[in-house]
Amino acid sequence: MDIIRVEFIKSSPDVKSCPAPSFPEYAFAGRSNVGKSSLINMLTVRKNLAKTSSIPGKTQCINHYLVNDAWYLVDLPGYGYARTSKAIKTRFPVIIKDYLLQRKTLACLFVLIDARREPMEIDLKFIHWAGKTRIPLVLCFTKTDKLSALQLRHKLDLYQEKLFETWAELPDFITTSSVHKKGRNEIIDIIVRSINLMNG
């Protein structure tokens, strides 16, 4: 799939304010500062579609982008650390969960994980919750250009070991690098297959 047209549609403070559910939606979520904006820009081949920032917690709403007039790319707020007021920080999980549970057109959730980090409890809890609620998900390990092949393999093995403690069958995972455009084709392929299945 060539991404020809990307249009910012709306930034919504809650799921009730989201655009009409007219297209399948592919949502991206992860801890603050995981590299979500950079990955979205790499995926859409747009430099400044999603605003990158050195300050974690920049995304505070549900952002909808219409791609090729056919599907929505949804940028969800980061969970975890955010340099914002306590009231806003505590709203983030509610915004994310409400969207994931109530949005009927959600086709897939891409959960972003910083490949450089040891398995973190907040990521594991979020993945476990998403799996338990039967949300279709794919794990995307970001910033893999910061690791050697051996280091990356070790981190992936650690995650698999932790996930096998609660999962009988692991979700799909992709290794990505916004710097090297790694993982872009794999994400696009998942979206294309999903759309084709829905269209029969």
Map the helices and strands.
Layout: E1 6-12, E2 25-30, H1 36-44, E3 62-67, E4 71-75, H2 86-102, E5 106-114, H3 121-132, E6 137-142, H4 149-163, E7 172-175, H5 184-198
Parallel strand pairs: 2-4, 2-5, 5-6, 6-7
Antiparallel strand pairs: 1-3, 3-4
What is the 3D form? Answer: globular
Q: What kind of sheet is the major sheet?
A: 7 strands, mixed
What kind of assembly state do the chains in view correspond to?
single chain
Which runs of at least 5 residues are low in confidence (pLDDT < 50)? 53-57
Structural class: alpha/beta
Explain what you see.
The chain has 200 residues and is α/β, with parallel strands linked by helices. Helix content is 34%, strand content 22%. Strands 1-3-4-2-5-6-7 form a 7-stranded mixed sheet, sandwiched between helices. Strand 6, helix 4 and strand 7 form a beta-alpha-beta unit. The longest helix is centred in the middle third of the chain and has 17 residues, at 86-102.
